[in-house]
Each structure stands twice: as C-alpha cells, then as structure tokens.
Amino acid sequence: MGGPAEHPDVWRAIDAQPTAAKLADTLEVRGRTPAQVRLRRRFLRFVPVRPGQRVLEIGCGTGVVLRDLMGLVGRRGEVTGLDSSRTMLVRARALARGVGGGRLRLRHGDGNDLPFAAARFDVSLAITVILHVPDPLRVVKELARVTRAGGRVGLQDQDFGLVGAAHPDRVLTDRILDGVAARIYEEPYSGRRLPALLREAGLAEVRVHADVYQDTALTAFSRAFLERRAENAVRFGIVDAPTATRWLDGFNEYLARGAFVLTMNYFGAVGVKR
Question: Taking each helix axis from N to C terminus, what angle separates 170-184 and 220-235, rounded to the nearest 10 degrees?
C-alpha cells in the first residue's frame, strides 16, 4: 500500500483527494440530519461538557461539533478544534462566524502529536475519528496528556459490525456492507473498542454510552452513505456496476413500500484523567 493519499480510507488524507470539498459537504449533510443532531448532543451531555470549560476536539472537520460546544461552554469557555485538513479548517472557520458562545480557536495539526501543552484542557474529544487513525492508542494517549487531572477524555465512533439495513437481498447487502468496511478500515468494529482504549491509555472511571442512528425515510445522509458503499463495492471488485445499481434500487423499492430501515450503532466512552 502507498502513502496516506493512496489509502482506501479517504478521510486519512482529505487535502490529497480531488473530492476534498465534497467530503466537507458530506460532514455538513450528516451534521444537519435530525437523528445525528440528537445522537451527538446526547453524547456531549453524557461526557458532560459544562459552561466555562476549555474543550478540545481533534479531527473537528467542518466544525459541526465545535458549534455545539461553543454553545455548551458559554462566554466564559473556550473551544479548540484541530484537524489535519486545511480544507476542513477553512470551512469550519467560515461556518462558525456569528455563532454565539465560547471563544473558538482552530489549529492545523496531527492527533498523533498534539501541539498543546500538557494539562491544557478540561475536556478532550475525538468524535467519529478513531475509526480512521492507524494508531488509535497513541492518539488517545495524546488526548490524555493534554487533559488536566480530573478532566475527561471522550470518544465516540460508529461500529460497522452493527449496521442494520432492510433490503430485499439480505445476502448481497451483507456482502457489500461487510466487504467494503473490511477493505477500508483496519478496525471496522472501532466503536466497541473505545472503552478498552481509554483504559489502556490510563484513564479511570470509564463509562460507556451506546446509541443508534435510525432512519426510515432515506435521508440525504443515509442515501449518500449507501451510494458510497455501492461505489466502493465496485471499486474493490466485490460486485460489478449493474449489481451495485440493483442493490441501490432495492432500497428505493423498500422506501416506496414504507419498508426502508437503516440503523447504525454508535458507541461513546468517557474516562477521567488520574
């Protein structure tokens, strides 16, 4: 396998992709989806994030979570977003203009080597990030390093071993969803590993919060997710293009019948810095 730009997971090297702007759009589509809004806000309450705190989010993307955090920390608080993509940071800065709440700082950097002093933050977060990094434990140890004693480190991720998709061809659906995830991610079941990662990084009082994204209306986010899975199934030689098209048509057929269902399990885990 070549460098990060050639890795099948495009999120590892966003700025090297010709579709970088489209990837940014994808994050905003997901962020506006009502079920996703509820899901991430429940996790932030679980952490919890409180007024006046200094909060770090790595892999902040276009700032969907940052904008929620600004409201939670209030005027006395401070929110810092870090991302390795300058494309994402430009979008995050533009979208945060006029958003009330705490001060926002944006930094370009790498989660493997955070450009912050030890004990800088009250809360450090990685939301839908760990799935995409080659060395998750190193990143979580860095999050712990920059968190003060008594502060919290919070992780949230999808678990692609727990996707439920109603479709007339169950065997083909499993073949595409499981096959694509296995080829893109080193650990497709990332979500269920988060509590162990926090403990391995030395965090205490680890708590777990499981949640489910569910959709019966084939939202723009769900449609984009399934279309990307179909495209990648063709790319990886799992199915041919006509089969991928037939698979997508099956979801439209179920939607017309009122039978469409898509669910994705998300796991959140929070630990306390000793």
Answer: 80
Query: What number of other Cβ atoms are within 10 A of residue 142's Cβ?
Result: 21
Q: How far apart are CA 4 and CA 20, in angstroms?
A: 14
10 Å CB burial of residue 165 (0-12, 13-18, 19+) is buried
On whether the CB atoms of residues 144 and 119 are closer than 8 A, the answer is no
CA–CA gap between residue 245 and residue 25 (Å, rounded): 23
pLDDT tens figures, 242-264:
999 999 999 999 999 999 999 99
DSSP per residue, 150-176: EEEEEEEEEEEEEEEE--S-HHHHHHH
Amino acid code (one letter) for 227: E
Q: Parallel, antiparallel, or unpaired: how do β-strands 78-83 and 103-108 relate? A: parallel
pTM of the complete model beyond 0.70? yes
Reading the block at residue 198, the tokens are 């926090």
- Angle, vertex CA 56, rays to CA 85 and CA 58, nearest 5: 30
Interval 103-117: pLDDT, tens: 999 999 999 999 999
Question: How many domains does the chain divide into?
Answer: 1
Reading the block at residue 24, the tokens are 């940014």
CA distance to 96, 147, 177, 225, 273, per residue, from 81 (Å): 11, 14, 31, 25, 20
Residue 225 domain flag: no
Using the 8-state DSSP alphabet, how is residue 183 labeled? H
Residue 142 lies in a domain: yes
Nearest in space to 267 (alpha carbons), one of 39, 7, 6: 39
- Do the domain assignments include residue 167? no
